[in-house]
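Students often ask why we bother encoding 3D structure as a string. The short answer is that it lets us treat folding as translation between two languages. Here is a chain of 119 residues written in the first language.
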Amino acid sequence: MRLLLLLLLLGLAALLCYLAGTLPADSPLLPGCRLRHSTGLLCPGCGSTRALRALVQGDILLSLRQNALLLPCFAWLALLCLSEGRRLTMALYAGLLVLLLFAVLRNLPVESLELLRPI
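And here it is in the second language, the structure alphabet:
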């Protein structure tokens, strides 16, 4: 498990280095969202690559504007790594419920929810 976590962290570090030097739209390694291309709907992850790039460059506000759920997802993933048993199950279901709710809200044609959509 520790080796898997180490490999994951190394992969994340490599991705962050790559993102710091390239625009996601110009990269052949970072495909666009298939759901958005095929249906026009935003998934919970739409804008995450741009948000991560903004975060790597130190622009927290732009990161939140691209995908408001990216930073809370880091905390959720840490909670999942530290949880076990019933707590793990509850954290997983709660996180999935938040992702689903976020996806629905960001696709509603309501002006006040415009902030949930990536720019």
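Translate back mentally: The chain has one domain: 2-116. Keep this in mind for the problem set.
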